[in-house]
Amino acid sequence: MKARVYKSTGSWYVAKADDGKFYNCRIKGVFKTENLQSTNPVAVGDIVMIEPEPEEGMTATIIKILDRENYIARSSPHGRHQHHIIASNLDQAVIIVTLKQPRTSFGFIDRFLVTAEAYHIPALILCNKSDLFGKKELKLFSRLRSIYQEAGYRLLSMSVENNEGVAEAAALLQQKTSLICGHSGVGKSSFINSFFPGLNLRTAEISSFSGKGMHTTTFAQMYDLPEGGSIIDTPGIKEFGIFDIEKQELSHYFPEMRRLLPDCQFNNCLHINEPQCAVKEGVNEGVVSEERYVNYVTMLDTIKETYQ
Ligand code: GDP
Ligand code: ZN
Fold first, then answer.
1. 146, 150, 153, 284: which has the fewest C-beta neighbours closer than 10 Å?
2. 13: Cα within 13 Å, side-chain hemisphere
3. Ligand 2 (ion): which residues have CB within 5 A?
């Protein structure tokens, strides 16, 4: 029977099968060695084949993982060459940010966007707490919007508190599988609960679970939306490490830079000191924002040279 994985604890998985029921699943030992690069053989969002075990109630064995359409991963604490798959088969990745209480850094947003680009997953930015916007934040927001729209991203503002823009944001989640991310305190739970009140309890359940000395472990969990589509909440994820991106490659994941790359004189241009660099010209002309360029350079510095 075909099923989709909704929850993973590392050794147990909860999967919803085609019969509409949830099964507690184990995997056959053999999967553990199949994908050496990944620390978790089965990820939330995976489509799997399961074999129910009738004697044991709603338990089943995962016997096969169907090919993933895509996935998003982060580097594993176990080593640079291992990664942890956060979720798979995604239609989009949504980042909730705030300009105040707390202020989300541009750097965090851009690392998230680069990760989503690298995995070919469309990204959507939701800026919450617009009720707190004063003059300064309004100015910052309009700058933010022009930067990200220029780069090709959709950015919406909303206030869960005042119920403004929430319906528009929620509408973008319908009939899709969306990974939802954001620093703690941005209003992620408030947002989800506002259009999905039934989830309240379960959200609380997860946070108390992960609060028990397990904050370093990532337990993504998928929930079905009442009107179709699902969201994958990622309570434990603080940061998306850029995984396995080469220096030469990084600018490909900035859409506004990517467009200019054919015009750089050198095809391995890093857009730092090279002559006739279309990206630097783009910064001077304003088609690439200075903020994004600065974040590009900062990220470039964090990528280690690879010696072959
Ligand atoms: P999470 O950690 O991202 O899940 O954030 P929560 O949903 O727990 O919200 C963190 C705090 O922000 C809570 O005190 C919320 O009441 C508050 N909050 C959420 N949305 C808004 C908003 O739109 N405006 C304001 N002013 N506060 C909000
Ligand atoms: Zn260049």
1. 284
2. 27
3. 264, 269, 271, 277, 279
